[in-house]
Every structure is written in C-alpha cells, then in structure tokens.
Design a protein that fits this description.
single chain, about 800 residues, alpha+beta, 7-stranded mixed β-sheet, 6-stranded antiparallel β-sheet, 29 helices
C-alpha cells in the first residue's frame, strides 16, 4: 500500500481539546495511517492511502465533530488566506468592542463604588438584561455552536467551559430580574450578575483577538516566502518577447531577465551573465556571479546584467515551492515534547467540569451565606479560568517561529522532531569532499615513475588517467578529465571499465594501428605520426614492434589493464609498488592532497595528485561547535595522511579515514553506541545511509537540486556555520517550549485551586470571575508572545566564537 501525505486547514479550533477531537476523528477513517493537528497554524496533516481516502471522507470526518476542513491541492500563490483571516479578525474586533462597551455600561450601573455615579437607567435590571442579551447570544454565539457540536459527539472543549460558565451567570441574572421575589424569599439579595457574563465574553474574545494577531506573526516566514514569488515572466515565443503570468510558464520556455527583475522560475542560463542576489533563498548576502551554463533560482533578483535562460522547473517543482512546502509541513508537525501536553489536554476539560461541580457542592453545603451565590460565582470562576489553550499553543507556536526563522537563513528543517533532536547533539560528523572542502579540486601533480622525464611522458600519464576517469562518476574523476581537456590531451578508448568503491577504477585500453609510426624513425612513419597527432588519434603502446626495411612495420595491438587508485587497489591486483612511488605518495598525502597511483599492465608508471581547498567557513564552524561543547569528527574514504592534513586545517581532532561509502553508516552507529547524539553532515545523496542512521542528518544543498528528502535539515547556503546556527536555533526553541509548557501547566495548577476558593479559609480571598477571564486570556497570549521572542533572540554562530 503506497501512502502519501496531505496537509489542509481546519476552521473552528480554539484549544488543545479541539486538536485531540479532530485527530481522533481522522484516525478513525479507514485508510488513514496517522493524523496530526496543529492548533497554532490551524492545519491537519495526515498520512493516508489515496486509493481508500478521498476528500469527501476527510470533509465528513471533520464536519462530524463540529469543525470545517478546507482542502485544496494548490500551493497558494496569492495571499487569499491572509485576506480571509483579516475579515475574520475584523468581525471578531467588532464583537470585542461591542461586548466590552455594553459590558462596561452594565459594570458601571451594577458594580459597588461605580454605580453611585451611573445614570438611573443603567441601574435598572431590565436595562442590564437588554444590554447583556446581544453579548450573550450574538457575540457569544460561537461558544454555543462549538459546545453543542462537541456535546453531540460526546466531547467537550474550552468553548464548553465558557458556554456553561457564562450561561450560569446570565441565566441566574435573568431569573433574578424576572422573578426577584422568589430569590428574596430564600434569603438571597436579588442582585443580577450580568456584568460577569458580558465582561467574561468580551475579555475572552479580546484574548482570542490578540492571540490571532500574535499567531499571525508566527507564520510570517511563510508569508515572506510566498511574497517572494514573481508575478510575471518575459518569455520568447515565436521570435517575440511577451509578458505572461508566472503560472503560464512551461518547462523549456526561453525567458529573458533584465537588471533589477526577479527571476520567475528555476532554470539554466543559455546566454548572457549577471550577478544574482540569492539572499532571500540561501541567506547569503553577497551576489553570486552567473554565466552561461549556470543554474538560477526562481524568486532571486538579477542585479546587473541581462541574460536569457531556459526554464527547467516551474510551478510546484521550483526550489521556492519546495521550500514553502517543507516549511509548511515542518510547522504543522508535532515535536515529541508535545505528547505530555496532549496527554493532559485529553483529560483536561472533563476534569475541570468535575471540579466545577465539586466547587459548587462544597460551597453550597459548607460555605457562608449567601451560600448559593458563593457556590455559583466560584463555579463560574473555575470554569472560566481553566485554560487548555496555553497548553495547546506552547509547542506549535515555538516550532512555527523556529522553523520559519531557519528558512529565512537558508536552514530548512524537515519536521518538529528534527528541530527538537538537534539541541541534544554532542557529536557532529563532517564528510570531507564537498562538505568541509569546496568540492572543486584541481590537479596539482602529474608524476612519472618511468625513466623518461620528458613532458610527452607526463602527457601520456595524464592521457591514460583521464581516459579511464572519463567513465567514472567520482567528483575527482571530473577534475582529471577537465585537466586533460585544458591541456588539449586526447582521450583513449577504454573497455571493461569498473569502479571499485573505496579503491579506485580499472579498465582495459586498445589502440590504433596508424600510430605504429610513433616507434619508427622513418620519415614516412614520422609523417603518419604527425597526421595522427593532428587528427587527435589515440597513442597505444605496441607490443612486438618490428621495422622491416623494404617491407614496413609490424606489431600487435593488445588490451592493457589500467589501474588508477590507492595502495589497496594495487595490492588487490598484485601490483608491486616501488619505494620511490610509495614515498612520493606519502609526501603528497602529507600535503593534504589526494594521490592516486597509475599502473599499466601491473606496473606502476605514474601518479596523479589532486587537492581540494577547504571552505573558508570550515574552521569557524568547527571552533564554534567546540565552544558549544560539541565534538567534531571528519569521515572520508581518503587515506589517513591526507585526511589528517585536511582535518588539521579545519581544526578537527578526530579523523575516520579510509572509510568506504557503505561503511559510513556503521561508523555513525559505533559512535551512537557510546551514548552520543550524532549529527551527520554530508551532501545528502552519496551519504544517504549515514544521514539516515544519524540522529540528525544535515545535507548541504547544491543548486536547485536540494536533497530535501535525504536529511532532517538541509542547508541551502552551503555555509558550514549554518550547522552551528541550526543547533543554536534548536536550543533556543526548546528553551522557549519548556518555558511555555511550564507557564501553561503552572498557571492551571496554581489558579484553578485559587478559583475554587483555596485561599478563602486562610486569607478570606476569592477570585472574581471577571479577573479569572482576564487571567485566562492573558495566559494564551503570553505563550504566543514568548514564542515570538525567538525572532529577536540571537543565534548567530559568530557570537559563539
């Protein structure tokens, strides 16, 4: 069964209990393997079988528990969602203003100390009833709708608590207004509490308004990314340049970009050059020079020149679309630390309702007169002050800000679990080639071990080496082939090529009979040799060569085994390595170069040395990690001498050398067995097994082919200091989550007993339900605001140095 993932919006959620209700409903749908609901960004993420689960199943499951699912396959290109939220906020603001204004009038006419200055009209109970009714049943209608829907499905949420609490206060007050005599006959003063019901509704709606405004700030990163998209593109069609919508651009379209314009989609430059500002995607502030053959990323800005490029990726396949999708998924995912909040929230509302009944019973039976009023007001305070919102928002708001902030700086975090795990990392393993080094090596030495030291012999060494490496996919192979091309050295035919992982390459070479003249001094043969050279013909070795005067030349063209690689390759093929060759290789390795022996017909004839320069940021990143108490390790297939020379330049003490690609995973697991939490930093493709085995896999992004699926964290900007930034960001985010959870739990643990009247026997203090509503609104808003502080907290690796 092939499963896929879908994310969609949910409307109507207000607390952690809502989250659990929807999750449970979705998990009951046949074909859904997993479901997670995020309160902070109001989304649900499911893993499901598309053959069994259709959109109507999801809509029905969510609607059946009283909420609305908004399912759309398209990635937002316009800010329609924000416009809708703006309309919702505007409507909420009207209700807040109306509720607090009417509640304020009621409070003025009924609250001791204030009512003396109030007009007589406001002191009239019927006036207060008329003012309170629209607040209760218009402004508070949402609480009733959500409560009724929840009760239909035998669940309860925060809306249930508010609806019960305010209805009790309003119902009692209405009864007092209509039947004052009945209340007075039982010895209770006929005084309504309309101010309690209206002010509570107004303050809770005000809290939700501020909460929604603050939550909008947590998704600012997504809004910024969506806003980066170009709106139009200038394409060349039928020989004419026309401006079209970005949604109409197709793969293969030829697009012109002028200075100052945004590059509309991903592609490859075919004509022209320029400096491109990629900071909005990679976080790198310095413009990157681009010329023909280079890739360009959609949404980046062309600074100086004009160029034409061919569109390679459009729509949801562009790098920006991938980043938006990844950030949305990460912000909608759940961190393991949230499980505790979810567990508590699953029992929270029912427990609070039980505590409300207990409060009423205790105060009614044992409280002072008027016992009924004390019982009612304290029960309302308990129902109102309980706040599962803060618990539901504690983790996801921090995750949203953390992942969004990372994306702004070229750090793409796959999910909340990866962000949480990163703060525990105490060992970082760096792959060498392309990670610690630039991945752009150069041929530094071409060495011959045969008697002749003529330049022609060195060219032969390079020719044979480049010919066999031309069939290899190893990064160093490309370097040797490019060197041959630069020196205009033609390549030979190679057969039976084989790449031996961790050792080198081997193959067989044959030649052309026209080049027999190379070993003859006859003028005609010299002319043949000259002509062959001009034709870039190949130059094989000839066995059993004979020059027979008056007849011509004879010889055998045979296949020759060619080996290019390390000592292990030579040993496995029983090739003897002379002391001269061995000493020279060790000398090159000591200089931090990768040296390869070249053997022809089981005889070492030369060597090729390649050096890759270390990245400028490598040393700074390693130093910053060391200052954080994180151990650094370098892993490579290179020999120990070369590896140690590179590691020394980077400041890394521990080196794992001569590790074959299929052994890297085992080396990661060995370190993990020592109780270490390991982050592996590699290219995301060749190191995939090791990245998957590590507790946190970190892939270095390359151009538009970012290996998003290969690792937990992807660094688009290729700056190694971003590894440090990711760990610091994780530490800051986890600290914020712990602060949020502590506040959310401490708030409820301390204030619910206070609302029940725990302080009354000792200090004679009771909590007014109005103050309870202020506290409840403040709790959830404070959690969101604390998460937003992550935007301002420093996590620059430079500050760690």
């Amino acid at each position: 069964m092939a499963t896929t993932t879908k994310q969609f919006r949910i409307k109507g959620m207000h607390c952690a209990s809502c989250v659990l209700t929807i999750e449970q409903a979705l998990k009951k749908v046949q074909g859904i393997e997993g479901a997670g609901v995020n309160l902070a960004n109001e989304t649900a993420t499911i893993t499901y079988d598309p053959e069994q689960v259709k959109d109507e199943h999801l809509l029905s499951a969510v609607a059946n528990v009283g909420y609305a699912a908004l399912i759309s396959e398209e990635i937002q290109t316009e800010d329609e969602e924000q416009k809708e939220k703006h309309r919702e906020l505007k409507a909420l603001r009207v209700k807040v203003v109306a509720s607090l204004f009417l509640g304020g009038l009621i409070l003025w006419g009924s609250f001791p100390g204030l009512m003396n200055s109030a007009p007589e009209l406001l002191k009239n109970f019927w006036t207060e009833l008329i003012l309170a009714a629209p607040v209760q049943f218009w402004a508070g209608l949402g609480f009733y709708k959500a409560s009724i829907s929840a009760l239909k499905h035998r669940t309860a949420n925060m809306d249930t608590l508010v609806a019960i609490g305010t209805t009790v206060a309003f119902g009692y007050s209405a009864f007092v207004t209509v039947f004052p005599g009945i209340i007075e006959r039982i010895g209770v003063e006929a005084a309504p509490y309309f101010d309690v019901a209206t002010i509570i509704i107004g303050l809770i709606l005000l809290g939700r308004y501020f909460e929604a405004k603050a939550k909008a700030g947590t998704s600012e990163a997504i809004k910024k990314l969506i806003g980066l998209q170009a709106k139009t593109a200038r394409v060349v069609r039928d020989g004419k340049e026309i401006d079209i919508s970005i949604s109409e651009v197709e793969i293969g379209d030829i697009v012109r970009v002028r200075p100052g314009e945004k590059i509309p989609v991903d592609g490859v430059i075919i004509d022209g050059s320029s400096a491109v500002d990629e900071s909005m995607v990679t976080g790198e502030s310095i413009p990157v020079l681009k010329a023909s053959g280079d890739t360009v990323i959609g949404a980046t800005i062309n600074k100086t020149g004009t160029f034409i490029f061919r569109a390679e990726k459009v729509g949801s396949d562009t790098m920006l679309a991938q980043i938006i999708k990844l950030v949305q998924e990460a912000q909608g995912s759940k961190a393991p630390i949230q499980r505790l909040a979810d567990l508590v929230s699953s029992y929270f509302v029912p427990v609070v309702i039980m505590l409300g009944f207990i409060t009423f019973a205790v105060w009614y039976d044992f409280g002072p007169e008027p016992a009924f009023l004390f019982a009612m007001l304290n029960t309302v305070a308990v129902l109102i002050i309980a706040c599962p919102c803060a618990m539901g928002l504690a983790t996801p708001t921090a995750i949203m800000v953390g992942t969004g902030k990372g994306a702004e700086h070229g750090i793409l975090i796959k999910d909340a679990e990866s962000l949480e795990t990163a703060h525990k990392v105490n060992v970082v393993i760096f792959d060498k080639t392309g990670t610690l080094t630039r991945g752009e090596p150069e041929v530094t030495d071409v060495i011959s071990f045969i008697e002749s030291k003529e330049p022609e012999v060195q060219a032969d060494i390079l020719q044979i080496a480049a010919s066999i490496e031309n069939l290899s996919e190893h990064p160093l192979a490309k370097t040797i082939v490019e060197k041959a091309s630069q020196d205009k050295v033609p390549l030979l035919n190679v057969s039976k090529f084989e790449a031996i992982a961790g050792h080198g390459v081997k193959g067989f070479m044959v030649g052309l009979a026209a080049l027999l003249g190379r070993q003859s001094s006859h003028p005609i043969d010299a002319a043949i040799q000259k002509e062959a050279g001009e034709l870039n013909a190949e130059k094989p070795e000839i066995k059993e060569f004979k020059a027979e005067p008056g007849f011509g030349l004879s010889g055998k063209v045979t296949e020759h085994l060619v080996l290019l690689g390390n000592f292990r390759l030579m040993e496995s093929h029983e090739v003897a390595v002379t002391n001269e060759a061995r000493d020279k290789i060790h000398e090159l390795q000591g200089e931090g170069k990768t040296a390869m022996l070249l053997a022809l017909s089981k005889e070492v004839i030369g060597a090729i040395a390649v050096a890759d320069t270390i990245k400028d940021t490598a040393g700074l990143a390693v130093q910053a990690l060391t200052n954080l108490g994180v151990e650094t390790v370098m892993i490579t297939g290179d020999n120990e001498r070369t590896a140690k020379a590179i590691a020394k330049k980077a400041g890394i003490q521990r080196v794992l050398a001569e590790v074959l690609p299929d052994q890297k995973e085992a080396e990661v697991r060995k370190i993990q067995l020592d109780g270490k939490v390991v982050a592996m930093v590699g290219d995301g493709i060749n190191d995939a097994p090791a990245l998957a085995a590590a507790d946190v896999g970190i892939a270095m992004g390359t151009g538009t082919d970012v290996a998003i699926e290969a690792a937990d964290i992807t660094l688009i900007n290729k700056d190694l200091r971003s590894v440090v930034s990711a760990i610091i960001l994780s530490k800051k985010t986890m600290r914020t989550i712990r602060q949020n959870l502590f506040w959310a739990f401490a708030y409820n643990v301390i204030l619910i007993p206070v609302a029940m009247g725990a302080l009354y026997p000792f200090f004679g203090l009771l909590l007014n339900p109005i103050y309870a509503s202020v506290a409840m609104a403040t709790s959830s808003v404070s959690v969101v605001l604390n998460s937003l502080l992550l935007k301002k907290k420093g996590w620059d690796p430079v500050k760690v140095l």
